[in-house]
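Subject line: Sequence and fold of a protein, written as structure tokens
Area: Proteins and the way their chains fold up in space.
Start of record: The labelled sequence and token lines come straight after this line.
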Amino acid sequence: MRKLLFLWIVVLMISSVYALGVTPGRTTLDFKPGLQKKVHFEIINSGGTDMKLALSVEGELADYIHLETRNITLSSSEHSKMMSYDITLPDNLKPGLRTGRVIITELPKKLSGGESYVSATLSVAVQLYVNVPYPGKYASSEMIVYNAAQGKDATFVFPVVSKGEFDLTSVRANVDIYNSLGSRVDSFNTPTISVPSGKKKEIVYKWKADVPIGNYRAVASVIYDGGVINLEKTFAVGNKELELQEIRVNSFTLGQIVKLEMLVENKWSEPIKKAYISTKIKNAEGNVVSKFESPSYDISPLAKQVFVSYWDTSGVMVGDYQAEVSVNYGEKTSKKNLEFKVSKDSLNIVGLGYVISPGEGGGTEDVVVVLGVAVAILVLINLLWFLLFRKKMKK
């Protein structure tokens, strides 16, 4: 019986998620002493069910919110119902953003045949925001920095809101840039803007990132009509990236375990730890015929590291294969799609601009051919010299 009751509660909880909504979810007002206003909102019965709802108020503005009613009923045939509350503000409120909420709660449903009640209910809220201006001039701001590639522009954005009684006539930002060692590498001043009372504007500045790749810290002072806002933000120049540059094989014989040396460059100005390479070899049908990984390596800043992987080629046939080589580090993966051209005694890799030379297995035959051609050329040269010498002797 308890299991059936629990299952019924869960079903009601899942169904109730889609049964109740409200719009608009928030109303924002500018403070005026003694302001009186009726605020309308709509309760949505999206589930098409019978519901009994209770309304309540909470938050610092609760004493100034007056509900028409605290209990309503929605039938399954009612898609929505319009409601409202009255707001009456006092003569004074603390400066800043003041908030209140009207909470709409679905009342528990009584189960058939008894005294048990389902306690799973759903609540939604209508928010009330009141912006109370600060006396005189007052601003709020933040710093947003969009990362840049080395040598490109990093964009600095300073949204400024004038929250005081009077307009801001002169707003600007001074910014110092520090590297990871704490040394200042650059400074700049933004243009000056004005911001009317109760409005929001943005200061935008593009800084050319002619600095080494790495993490940086921006320390800014937003200066406005005698006031100062101090801000800090970290940002990056360049990408935290590992790049596969080439693959080498000292020898290759199909059917043996082959050692692959993969050269990886760290393009970041900080060490990257526990990086490894995973490789998948796929046939023409897209089926994986081999899969192997290298050990983990730590790479120093702006340095190169050889990753060693071993490929067991037993069972691999002569032919062309697609290879997916992934350099994995942290939560990032850098992938390259290559083509492995496999013969009995050679491996050619297409896609890195570098071709792996044939290994020991086929080297002897190639040397014999080269030596044979060289001997033939030498014999021909000697023969020509001999004929030329005999012709001169006859003269």
About this structure: The chain has a mean pLDDT of 84.
